[in-house]
Specification:
With 500 residues, the protein is an alpha+beta fold. The protein contains 19 helices and 21 strands. The strands form seven sheets. The chain has a seven-stranded mixed beta sheet with strand order 17-18-16-15-19-20-21, sandwiched between helices. A four-stranded mixed beta sheet has the order 3-2-1-6.
């Protein structure tokens, strides 16, 4: 039987701009209870050295250790388990002794420029998509590995660990490759849920570098004695594999009932799409740049990556560097008063991928679309949010058309769930109700998978989501206004109309 008292589970959730350790207190007794608290937050600051952009992985690991120490103090005992989720695609290389061969390279580094063309000369885009179902993104792990071929680090490597697996390895001494994150490498066949050896062989990628695959809920070792000493925790503390790609954990925590829903997992990126039972590997799907990533409980996350709140985050950084810092809450209030759809851009434009100078790049993109360039911070913010709402609409409409699955609700989870203007604009753009929350979806999905593995809760995703609905209070936004204006803006971005 489930334990009488709630058990604490530690969720390590590393995002592109910050890391946090959360403690989820879960009980499966009666209707079940779920309570989440943040116990430690720390910055994630990439570092450029010798022209290459790196993750400061040792600083992140130190933050994880501090967070586990705080988790034990907050719970008054060692957590029942630890789970780790992070961003996707990036990795660390280890030598034969298990030592790290340099800081992992950041996916926004320029080393993958031109790699898609080289790969395309060996495997056509259609063949690659048919084998892996992954949308083209210039920083996919596959392109990172082909860019690294011939480098001393890759030549000396005996093990490759994706970022959450690297953290787990340092905590436990055991190496594995969690499946939901592995599916973002462009080296997994989403039908078999195994490595695509034909793709790896064609491109000279050594799959023996990867540790054995494991799935959400599988055991991933126990905290090492040195980790226990560092964190003050008492043995044993198991580590459980979760949906280690943070979007996989976030989608698991979408508080939906039934399957007629779309989701937008918002943060630095917006991941907009549907949850399916099988991948969509058609040529039309490839042309629409949809991805088939693997989710919890055998699901497929059929989605499009959209540039997301990165656009606004970079604007805020630029204004601060220029000596004109902006308070986000005030900026959003002012943006709500700016006329809508006056200026907008294609939020999927790869021109926005690199950091730096974002306000000027947004202005230039507006001119290319044929509209007025926004000038003030409030106007630029409204442009960004209108553009994201249009991108959410386009992705959700395309996903329904390509998959044959209709939806009646859009769930927004992640940090953007706090952004009332973005939620309202997405409802208006899509013509569908938006249910916003939870904001800490990745941590909640992480905790729920751990709790189920420990036997505290039972059932599939439907049961986990029922517990979320019973314990959370998401906010609902109904569509309002004239959708014809959104139709005209969408047509203009698609090249089908002209600005009036």
């Amino acid at each position: 039987m489930p334990p009488t008292e709630p058990l604490p589970f530690a969720a390590v959730d590393l995002g592109a701009s910050s890391g946090r350790v959360m403690v989820g207190h879960v009980s499966g007794r009666g209707a079940g209870t779920l309570r989440l608290e943040e116990v430690h937050r720390f910055p994630n600051r990439p570092v450029r050295t010798a022209g290459t952009l790196h993750w400061d992985i040792l600083s992140l690991y130190a933050g994880v250790l501090d967070g586990l120490r705080a988790a034990g103090a907050a719970a008054g005992r060692a957590p029942a388990s630890v789970g780790i989720d992070t961003w996707a695609v990036d990795y660390g290389l280890l030598d034969a002794t298990g030592a790290l061969l340099g800081n992992p390279v950041h996916y926004r580094d320029t080393r993958t420029e031109g790699e898609a063309a080289k790969v395309g000369a060996v495997l056509s885009p259609s063949a690659l998509y048919g084998a892996t179902g992954l949308q083209y993104l210039p920083f996919n792990t596959l392109y990172q590995l082909t860019a690294a071929q011939g480098s001393p680090a890759l030549g000396a490597a005996r093990r490759l660990l994706l970022i959450p697996d690297l953290i787990a390895y340092w905590l436990t001494g055991e190496a594995g490759t969690e499946l939901t994150n592995a599916s973002t490498t462009q080296l997994i066949d989403p039908r078999t849920r195994e490595w695509s050896r034909s793709v790896a062989d064609a491109l000279g990628i050594d799959l023996t570098l990867f540790a054995p695959l494991r799935g959400p809920g599988d055991p991933a070792g126990r905290l090492l004695p040195e980790v226990l000493a560092e964190t003050g925790l008492t043995s044993p503390v198991p580590v459980t594999a979760v949906g280690s790609h943070d979007t996989a954990s976030a989608v698991a925590a979408v508080p939906a009932s039934g399957d007629r829903f779309a989701y937008v997992a918002t943060g630095t990126w917006s991941l907009a799409g549907l949850e399916l039972d099988a991948p969509v590997l058609t040529e039309e799907s490839r042309s629409a740049n949809f991805t088939n990533e693997l989710g919890v409980d055998g699901t497929v996350r059929y989605l499009r990556n959209i540039m997301g709140l990165w656009l606004l985050q970079e604007c805020l950084r630029t204004w601060e560097a220029e000596g004109a810092p902006q308070r986000l809450d005030r900026l959003l209030r002012e943006a709500a008063g700016v006329p809508g759809l006056r200026s907008f851009v294609d939020a999927d434009d790869p021109a926005f991928l690199a950091p730096g100078g974002m306000p000027d790049r947004i202005r230039e993109a507006c001119r290319r679309v044929g509209g007025p360039a926004p000038e003030t911070p409030a106007e630029i913010t409204r442009c960004v949010l209108d553009s994201l709402a249009l991108a959410h609409r386009r992705a959700i409409e395309d996903a329904q058309r390509l998959s044959g699955r209709a939806v009646d609700t859009v769930h927004i989870v992640g940090g953007g769930a706090h952004n009332e203007l973005l939620c309202r604009l997405t409802a208006d753009a899509c013509g569908l109700p938006v249910v916003a929350g939870p904001a800490e979806a990745a941590a909640l999905g992480n905790v729920l998978v751990q709790a189920r593995a420990a036997g505290v809760v039972r059932g599939g995703l439907a049961e986990l989501r029922a517990l979320l609905r019973a314990t959370l209070e998401p906010r609902r936004y109904e569509p309002t206004g004239d959708r014809a204006e959104w139709d005209r803006a969408a047509a203009l971005l698609a090249g089908e109309g002209a600005r009036r």
